[in-house]
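ESCALATION

Customer reports they have been waiting on this structure for their group meeting. Please prioritize. Original submission:
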Amino acid sequence: MLPQSRATLLIVTGYLLFKSLKRNKGAGPDRGTAPELDMRNGMEGNIVLVDDDRNILTSVSIALESEGFKVRTYTDGAEALRGMSSNPADLAVLDIKMPRMDGMELLRRIRDNNVIPVIFLTSKDDEIDEVLGLRMGADDYITKPFSQRLLVERIRALLRREKANKDASEGKEGEKPIQRGDMMLDASRHLCTWKGKHVNLTVTEFLILKALAQRPGHVKNRDQLMDAAYGDAVYVDDRTIDSHIKRLRKKFKETDDDFGQIETLYGVGYRYRE
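Update from on-call: job pushed to the front of the queue and completed.
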């Protein structure tokens, strides 16, 4: 067994080496390096990271800082709440299971006077935690162990949503909503409604549903849905997509028992009914 500090150093070094190779891949004298999709696009990037595991704090904060984010780390909820009160953030990433003040209580306190996006981290795939967290106002949910690339993309997606909401409030036009019968998807505001009622979706669920709804009647296989939800930099197995589809159906059925727009074609994939 490697000491924890050495193991963390190896993880961080490996991540930065991977990122360096990825940036340089395909670069040539005529093409140069592809532009980063980070905070240079005008989005704020002050991130609060709260976890009682110092190895996670170290490796994730270095990964986020290498992407252009400014990161503040805390080891418990009470400390984070004091820090955020005096120095507000643009987005918070919270572990659920922590001493003194857990992630659920911290989220409740944050929501008393703040609407910043919040992503939950948890060490177990506990649907009860997810449902409770989302009902309390969390925006997304990632299960440990997780891909740092996935976390980066989820942070960017939520910050893009916040920027779109700000633009909309200032009268700027964004991406046009998708209307499919009784369902409306507004990607600019990360808003989904069914028969006028709000359906609370995570970022991943929203992206999968959007991929299906863009072309009703057309089948999307699992690989295509993976690319839509995670991008080509993150690999997940088929069962992960199946689990997201199951949760999507469950959330819509909580609003309407007769919901059946997402169809399964066994051995092929899924489609949104025309």
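Sent to customer with the following note: The chain is about 45% helix and 15% strand.
Escalation resolved.
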